[in-house]
Structures are given as C-alpha cells and as structure tokens.
C-alpha cells in the first residue's frame, strides 16, 4: 500500500490548487486537468 504523500500530484487548471491521484483516475490520469466537477464547470476561458 502506498502512502498518500507518495502519490502523484497535479495542479488544477482552474483554481491552481494541488490535487492527488485517485484510483478512479488510474486509466486517464494524463487527461485529468481539474480537481473537481466545480472547477471543471467554472474553468477559465482559454
């Protein structure tokens, strides 16, 4: 078992806060850009 501190992290594209890897994101981790559904809905315009 891995400790939470050992999991990969990314910064959210909307709010800039760091978020950690989740098991449900295992197959699509490279595509994940936002930390939550709220950030995904209120993302900044490109």
3D architecture notes:
This is DUF2256 domain-containing protein. InterPro entries: UCP037205. Pfam families: DUF2256. The structure is a single chain. The protein has 46 residues and is of the alpha+beta class. It has one domain. The protein is built from 1 helix and 2 strands, in the order E-E-H. A two-stranded antiparallel sheet has the order 1-2. Strand 1 (9-11) and strand 2 (18-20) form a beta hairpin. It is globular and about 35 Å long. The N and C termini lie far apart (38 Å).
What percentage of amino acids are in beta strands? 5-15%
Spans of at least 5 consecutive residues whose pLDDT stays below 50 are none
Euclidean distance between termini CA atoms: 38 Å
What's the mean pLDDT score?
A: 87
Biggest β-sheet description: 2 strands, antiparallel
Shape: globular
The helix-strand sequence is: EEH
Structural class: alpha+beta
E-strand count: 2
Counting structural domains, the number is 1
Helix content: 10-25%
Number of helices: 1
The main sheet orders its strands as 1-2
Gyration radius, rounded:
11 Å
Topology:
Layout: E1 9-11, E2 18-20, H1 37-41
Antiparallel strand pairs: 1-2
Summarize this structure briefly.
The chain is an alpha+beta fold and 46 residues long. 11% of the residues lie in helices and 13% in strands. It has one domain.
Please tag this protein with its features.
46 residues; alpha+beta; two-stranded antiparallel ribbon; 1 helix; globular; UCP037205; DUF2256 domain-containing protein
